[in-house]
C-alpha cells in the first residue's frame, strides 16, 4: 500500500506539472516567454509547453484597442481655451517590444495620445478646430487619434454666435454691393447701345409705357426728354446772366 501511495502521488505530481506546463493561446494572442528571467522567444497562437518554475509567459493581445482620451483643456493659437475629447485606436504589432521596452504600454499610449492632441490643436485657431476637423485628424493620424468632440463654455458660444452674425451681415452687404455694381454695369452697357440711335430710346419709352398699361395701373407716365430739360435750364441761366 505504501508503494501504491507513492505511485499515486507521483502521478498526481506529474499531472500537476503537465497542467502548469500546458499553454494554449488564441489566434489574436501572443506569449512573450522568459527563461530564468531572460527573453527566449514569442509563442503562439495554438498549443505549446513551458518548463514549470523555469519559464514564465506574458500574454499580449494583438486586437485593435479602442480607448477614449479624457477631455483635454487646450489653448488654441488665438488664445481661446477649449475642452477637447478624442478617441484612440491602436494595436500591438511587436509583442516583444511592448512587454520589454515599455512598463505599461496601455497607459503609455494613452498619455502619448493626450500629449499629441494638446500639441497639435495648440497650433490651430478656434475656427480651424470647429470647421476643419479632417485637417486636424490628418495632422495627428500617426498616433491614430481622432477628435470626437469640442466643448465650449457659454461665453464663447455667445461670442462665436455674434461673430457668425456679423460675418453673415458682412457677406449680405458685400452681395448687395456686388449686385448694385453688376446692375450699374448692365445699365451702362444698355445706355451705350441705345445712345447712338435716338429711335431706339423712343422705342424703349414706348415699351415701358406698354408694360405699365398692361398692369391696369391708373398711373400716367409721360416721357420727357432730358435734352429738352437741359436746354431749358441753359436758356434760363443765360437770361439771368
Summarize the helix and strand pattern as letters: HEEEEEEEHHHHEHHH
Cα-based radius of gyration, to the nearest Å: 42 Å
Can you give the helix content as a percent range? 40-55%
By DSSP, the count of extended strands is: 8
Task: Please state the overall shape, judged from the principal axes of the Cα atoms.
Answer: rod-shaped
Number of helices: 8
Query: What portion of the residues fall into strands of 2 or more residues?
Result: 15-25%
Q: Structural class, please? A: alpha+beta
User: Can you give the mean pLDDT?
Assistant: 79
Largest sheet: 3 strands, antiparallel
How far apart the termini lie comes to: 154 Å
Overview of the molecule:
- There is one protein chain.
- Helix content is 54%, strand content 23%.
- It has 8 helices and 8 strands, in the order αβββββββααααβααα.
- The strands form 3 sheets. The chain has a 3-stranded antiparallel beta sheet.
- The mean pLDDT is 79.
Summarize this, please?
The protein has 241 residues and is of the alpha+beta class.
List the helices and strands and how they pair.
Elements: H1 2-21, E1 22-25, E2 29-35, E3 38-43, E4 46-49, E5 55-61, E6 65-75, E7 81-90, H2 95-100, H3 105-121, H4 126-131, H5 133-139, E8 145-151, H6 154-194, H7 198-214, H8 226-240
Antiparallel strand pairs: 1-4, 2-3, 2-5, 6-7, 7-8
Amino acid at each position: 500500500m505504501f508503494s501504491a501511495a507513492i505511485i499515486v502521488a507521483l502521478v498526481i505530481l506529474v499531472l500537476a506539472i503537465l497542467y502548469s506546463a500546458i499553454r494554449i493561446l488564441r489566434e489574436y494572442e501572443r506569449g512573450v516567454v522568459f527563461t530564468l528571467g531572460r527573453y527566449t522567444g514569442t509563442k503562439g497562437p495554438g498549443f505549446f509547453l513551458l518548463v514549470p518554475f523555469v519559464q514564465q509567459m506574458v500574454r499580449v493581445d494583438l486586437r485593435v484597442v479602442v480607448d477614449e482620451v479624457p477631455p483635454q483643456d487646450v489653448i488654441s493659437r488665438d488664445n481661446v481655451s477649449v475642452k477637447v475629447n478624442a478617441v484612440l485606436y491602436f494595436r500591438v504589432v511587436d509583442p516583444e517590444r511592448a512587454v520589454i521596452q515599455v512598463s505599461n504600454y496601455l497607459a503609455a499610449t494613452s498619455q502619448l495620445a493626450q500629449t499629441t492632441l494638446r500639441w497639435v490643436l495648440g497650433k490651430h485657431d478656434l475656427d480651424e478646430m470647429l470647421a476643419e476637423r479632417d485637417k486636424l485628424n490628418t495632422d495627428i493620424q500617426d498616433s491614430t487619434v481622432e477628435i470626437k468632440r469640442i466643448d465650449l463654455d457659454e461665453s464663447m458660444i455667445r461670442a462665436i454666435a455674434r461673430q457668425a452674425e456679423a460675418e453673415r451681415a458682412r457677406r449680405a452687404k458685400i452681395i448687395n454691393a456686388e449686385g448694385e455694381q453688376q446692375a450699374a454695369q448692365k445699365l451702362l452697357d444698355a445706355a451705350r447701345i441705345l445712345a447712338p440711335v435716338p429711335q431706339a430710346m423712343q422705342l424703349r419709352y414706348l415699351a415701358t409705357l406698354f408694360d405699365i398699361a398692361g398692369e391696369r395701373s391708373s398711373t400716367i407716365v409721360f416721357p420727357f426728354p432730358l435734352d429738352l430739360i437741359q436746354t431749358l435750364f441753359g436758356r434760363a441761366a443765360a437770361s439771368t446772366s
